[in-house]
């Protein structure tokens, strides 16, 4: 169950990162409100996952999901550039998340 909470926390991290960008420095009410609510949800779920997962594993996977997800959202929704170097970097982060999960399979 901790892994489900952790993945959900990572997904909320993607949402809050996107809406933080859309909030224009917290000057727009709706995106700012969504940012704050999803931040709280993300941190709450991360803290629940950390009850049974090691700190290094939980934090690495959480930030990795957020980083890769924000990278994809940036490309798909915000028109950010797609270069071989950026794709390689994203793939390496994803590989790190997978390896961290495999290395923690006993928890």
Overview of the molecule:
The chain is mainly α and 107 residues long. The protein has one domain (2-103). The chain has four helices and no strands. It has helices at 2-22, 29-49, 55-78, 84-103. The model has no long low-confidence stretch (mean pLDDT 94). This is Guanidinium exporter.
Low-confidence sequence ranges: none
What is the overall pLDDT average? 94
Number of helices: 4
* Helix-strand makeup class: mainly alpha
How far is the N terminus from the C terminus?
11 Å
DSSP strand count: 0
Largest beta-sheet characterization = none
Give me the strand/helix succession. Answer: HHHH
Query: Could you say which overall geometry the principal axes of the C-alpha atoms support?
Result: flat
Radius of gyration: 15 Å
Number of structural units classed as domains: 1
Organism: Ahrensia kielensis
Transmembrane segments: 27-46, 58-79, 85-102
Subcellular location: Cell membrane
Protein name: Guanidinium exporter
List keywords for this structure.
4 helices, 80% helix, single chain, mainly alpha, 107 residues
In short:
This protein has 107 residues and is an all-alpha fold. The protein has helices at residues 2-22, 29-49, 55-78, 84-103. The protein has one domain (2-103).
Topology of helices and strands:
Layout: H1 2-22, H2 29-49, H3 55-78, H4 84-103
Helix pairs in contact: 1-2, 1-3, 3-4
């Amino acid at each position: 169950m901790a892994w489900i909470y952790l993945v959900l926390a990572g997904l909320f991290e993607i949402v809050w990162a996107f809406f933080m960008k859309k909030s224009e420095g917290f000057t727009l009410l709706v995106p700012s409100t969504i940012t704050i609510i999803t931040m709280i949800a993300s941190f709450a779920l991360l803290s629940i996952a950390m009850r049974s997962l090691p700190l290094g594993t939980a934090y690495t996977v959480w930030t990795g999901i957020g980083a890769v997800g924000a990278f994809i959202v940036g490309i798909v929704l915000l028109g950010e550039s797609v270069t071989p170097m950026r794709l390689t970097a994203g793939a390496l982060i994803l590989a790190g998340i997978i390896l961290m999960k495999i290395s923690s399979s006993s928890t």
